[in-house]
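Incident review: delayed structure delivery

Summary: a single-chain prediction request sat in the queue longer than the usual turnaround. Root cause was a stuck worker, restarted by the on-call engineer. No data loss occurred. The affected request and its eventual output are reproduced below so the record is complete for anyone auditing the incident later.

Affected input:
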Amino acid sequence: MRIYPHFVVVGFSNSYLIADEKTGAAVIVDPGMFDVSFLKLIEDHHYYIRAVLVTHAHESHINGLKTLTRIYDTLIYSFRDKIFDITTKTIKDGDIITVENLCFEVIETPGHSRDSVVYKCQDYLFTGDTLTAGLIGTTPHDHARKILEGSIQKKIFSLPDYMVIFPGHGPPTRLECERTTNPMLSIET
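Output delivered after worker restart:
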């Protein structure tokens, strides 16, 4: 398995290409923009996009869907049943998405948005806006913030320290760092 980050200037968001180098099957997480450089990365490595995983349907994470679906016949996985006019395969907490040798577990983390999810693949977490380096997702009100913090504490912080976080914005981080130093959370020791 190989992970390629793709930074999108519009919205300052991260997209990720996760590829099985043996089979050429690939998955994109949060296609914020599907530009020529992203297409070149995929085509130069002879990958084929088998699935798109959406962490939440905010524009900076989904703007590339329309272009991507014109090029690749692929399944879109989301908590929502439609994004733009594209029908998706709906997911829920605990679902397992298997794309050839790649396996992703769905972890629901509402709070930043009602449709926020994290995808766990091996030792990696694709967190969207749920959890980033030194931050958590913005929330519309205090109740949503408590829900988000509860999701992070129960579902994410219960995972091993060595897990690498690939967020929707900002640099990668490790779960241990966020568990012990993230100033946006009430750290429980």
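Verification: The chain is about 20% helix and 35% strand.
Action items: add queue-age alerting; document worker restart procedure.
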